[in-house]
Amino acid sequence: MDPTGLDELLQHPSLWRASSAQGEGKVLPTGFRRLDERLPGGGWPLDTLIELLLPLHGIGEINLLLPALRTLCAQDAQSPRWIAWLGPPHLPYAPALASAGLDPARMLVVRSNAARPPGSSLWAMEQALRSRACVAALGWVDGADGQSLRRLKLAAEEGGSLGFLFRPKERAREPSPAALRLLLEAHDGALDVHILKNRGGLPARVKGVLEGMAGG
Amino acid sequence: MSSLTPDLFDPTPVPAGQPARLSLVPEASCLPARQGRGELWLCLWLPQLPLDALATGEDAPDAPACVIEGEGSAQRVIAANGAAVRHGIRAGLGLNAALALCPGVRLHMRQPAAEAALLERLARWTTQFTPVVSLEPPRALLAEVRGSLGLFGGAAGLRRRALESLHRRGLYAFAALAPTPRAALWLARAGLDTPVQAPGELPGLAARLPLSCLGWPQATLARFATLGIRNVADLTRLPRDGFARRFGPSLLAELDEAFGRRPQPRRRAVMPERFDDSLELPVETGSIPLVEIALERLLGRLEAFLRTRSAGILGLAVALLHRGQPATRLRLGLARPGGEAGHLQALLHERLGRTLLPAPVVALRLRSTVAVPLELRSGVLPGTAGYDADPEAAARLLEHLRARLGREAVFSVRLAQEHRPERAWQVSEPALGKTGAGPFAEAVAVPVGPARPLWMIAEPQALRERDGLPRHGGRSLTLLSGPERIETGWWDGQDVCRDYYVAAAADGVRLWIYRERRRSGGWWLHGVFG
Predict the structure, then answer these.
(1) FRET label pair with B178: which of A177, B116, B187, B280, CA 20 to 30 Å apart?
(2) Which residues contact B358 (CB under 8 A, 6 or more apart)?
(3) A127-149 pLDDT, tens per residue?
(4) DSSP code string of A60-99
(5) Number of neighbouring beta carbons within 10 Å of residue A146
(6) Do A56 and B409 touch (CB under 8 A)?
(7) For domain B276-373, which CATH number applies: 3.90.660.20, 3.10.450.50, 3.40.50.2000, 3.30.1490.100?
């Protein structure tokens, strides 16, 4: 067959190719313009796993997600789904969630005081992502191998939900199948975001995404 | 046998020129002349039910086996499988004769309870074709199927489907269709295939029915033989009251019922409200995976039980029976009525994983709560709005997480009307389905005012102090805003008097701390900003 003819055929607009479907994924604006500029499509990629690497808890990682979580809650007000918090370091405080614009009743918290077997947060996150009952799942996990992370990503794709995985900064050097990997750092009261892995975009460093954090 | 004495009391006029044939079968004009309507009964007759009820997996299908009952020298064979029949063993044969014909035949004692249980299960299975099912113990089932013919491809299609389905389960049955239950039973026992749709066809088939299909006592059948009666057609040519006098009115009534002259009301099989079934394990075992395999079978029966009634259950109790020890019991509760075998299996798998067996398991028993009708929802076409919330999915996720992590580990939160920060929120049951009109469906107002941290530390941590400033992680904290005085709660004895501040640590974390103003004083960490 004529090679140029084949190329033309492949460019035909009516022809759908599975590999091209990945590029036009849905995105959700992060709410922070400087971060949106650096992400392909202008926001968080949906139906996949996003990894956030932190030096320690409480530097503003949840504040970074708040606008997106608010949008997700508003989108399916007709048939509401949960936002799952799996193995958080402390208890989510309902009055603060309410002030931030999130309905506390839409939060599903999975946290036990007793010593849990390792891997139960990963398992719970996979169940939550796959179940179609959650619109987003936030998970706190320390060590996870590539196989487990791939399973989480697959679960998010199948269940139509967005997974945010929080891991310690030390894991930045390990390879990960997450669609987006961000390293967060606090600098002089502002939050810097290093984009380590960006599917469809370039790694970058965005300074001062969250500023002036006094009084939140 | 063709010329008979006319019965003086029969009022039917005999047309001239015709031999007087006063028969026990009424003429077709006496019956309602509705072709294709009226009842149609399906009879399923299982000749090897005693053998199938034992369901021992150890016998190879080619090995001859039979079931015996009785005691001592009066033991007789009541059922034999195909291989044994080929050796010449028949029902009714004495035990010694059977052993003489086939020395290697496997013998099993009859278990009437198991037979009755199997017949009950089959009755439930038959309800997939029609709701009107009746038991005809010991080995047959009757079902009225006229209304279902259209759904299953006509009489022949229904019959074929039933037999194929039974065959797949390893059960050997004969099926026959006739306008009356008794005729259907006789046809099934005789092994006649053709469905009989109209009552008028029955007399024609009577000639092919041997006397053995009637199920009448041997003595009576012997007397028929001395009279030269070989089949049911001959039987119907006997005079009525002479028959009644010699053999009893009940047998005459049975003939009338079979040919549709007399109604034969049947008692409908009553379906139990709850599922209660047991399974004996083929070998005693202490291994959980083997127990789960047996549990899978019981759950399959539960699912079939629920599906025939479009019902769901709210709870399940599983008892693992041990020899000589009290049983291990597990209870499972469901958030919404359901009964999918796969889902229940997964939940029980989690529960069994945390159970320690004190002794090997001998048998399993599964009991359910009362079955409640399910609201059936139509499914979603693939590709169309596949991500709509599904209350079933929410309930399943909740059950699954709780089964593994414990009930208290999975919760939601809500606001409470309180100034004391640790009481301004409560654990709540995760809501399923729609949560109400607006985002804040509760009456508690959204707190406006000073910021609150996203994370609350369950037990406030004491902080060290140096030069009047609190320290955390080895460094002094910088106070950013405050103080916010919270002094309240005198009415229930848990009064607090605290000054809250937002403090920044050197590593960029913002903390919510307070200074206790009573008694001891001191700085405490209560929350982390997010």
Answers:
(1) B116
(2) B322, B325, B328
(3) 999 888 888 999 998 878 888 88
(4) SHHHHHHHHHHHHHHHTSSS--EEEEES-SSEEPHHHHHH
(5) 11
(6) no
(7) 3.30.1490.100
* C-beta separation of A167 from A53 below 8 A: yes
Q: What digits encode the pLDDT tens for the residues A2-50?
A: 667 787 777 666 666 555 444 456 788 888 888 888 888 788 888 889 9
Looking up residue A130, the CATH number of its domain turns out to be 3.40.50.300
Domain boundaries, chain B: 35-271, 276-373, 450-528
Q: For residue A1, tell me if it sits in a domain.
A: no
CB atoms within 10 A of CB B429: 12
Are the Cβ atoms of A132 and B387 closer than 8 angstroms?
Answer: yes
Full domain range(s) for residue A197: 25-210
- How many whole angstroms separate alpha carbon B291 and alpha carbon B280? 10
B502·A112 Cβ contact <8 A: no
Q: Count the neighbouring beta carbons within 10 Å of the beta carbon of residue B232.
A: 25
User: Does residue A133 lie in a domain region?
Assistant: yes
- Give CA–CA dist B249/B256, Å, rounded: 11
User: Which residues in chain A are contacts of B413 at CB distance < 8 A?
Assistant: 91-92, 94, 97, 104-105, 107, 109
B480 and A214 within 8 Å at the Cβ level: the answer is yes
Which residues touch B311 (CB under 8 Å, ≥6 apart)?
A: B337, B339, B371, B372, B373, B374
B335 token code pair: 């958030």
Residue B32 to chain A, least CA–CA distance (Å):
57
Question: Do residue B435 and residue A105 have CB atoms under 8 angstroms apart?
Answer: yes
| C-alpha–C-alpha distance, residues A19 and B383, integer Å | 19
- CB of A59 within 8 A of CB of A110? no
Give the whole-angstrom CA distance, residue B326 versus residue B361: 11
According to DSSP, the β-strands at A180-187 and A49-54 are parallel
**Residue B231: strand pairing partners:** B210
d(C-alpha B8, C-alpha B384), whole Å? 79
Predicted TM-score (pTM) of the model is 0.58
Whole-angstrom Cα distance, residue B87 to residue B68? 16
> What would you report as the CA-atom Rg of chain B, rounded to the nearest whole angstrom?
38
A93–B527: do the CB atoms touch at under 8 Å? yes
ipTM of the complex: 0.81
Three-class DSSP category at B68? strand
- Residue B61 CB: number of other CB atoms within 10 A? 9
Q: How many A/B residue pairs have CB atoms within 8 Å? A: 186
Window from A61-65, B50-54, B495-499, B523-527 with minimum mean pLDDT: B50-54
Residues B142, B175: Cα–Cα separation, whole Å: 10
**Pick from A82, A198, A58: which is nearest to A140 by CA?**
A58
Tally of structural domains, chain A: 1
Inspect the interface and report whether the beta carbons of B413 and A104 lie closer than 8 Å: yes
**What Rg, from alpha-carbon coordinates, does chain A have?**
19
Q: Which residue has the tokens 């003939």?
A: B255
Query: Considering only alpha carbons, which residue of chain B is nearest residue A78?
Result: B434
Is A6 within a domain?
A: no
Q: Which residues partner with B315 through β-bridges?
A: B333
Q: Is the pLDDT at A70 greater than 60, yes or no? A: yes
Q: Find residue A140's DSSP bridge partners.
A: A166
- Which of A65, A79, A93 should we substitute to test contact with B (largest number of B Cβ atoms within 10 Å)? A93
Residue with tokens 């006789």: B186
Cα A49 from Cα A154, distance rounded (Å)? 8
Q: Is residue A16 part of a domain?
A: no
| Beta carbons of A64 and B421 less than 8 angstroms apart | no
Q: Give the single-character DSSP code of B193.
A: -
Chain B contact set for A186 (CB, 8 A)? 507-509
Q: Provide the CATH number for the domain formed by B35-271 in this structure.
A: 3.30.70.270
pLDDT reading at B90 higher than 90? no
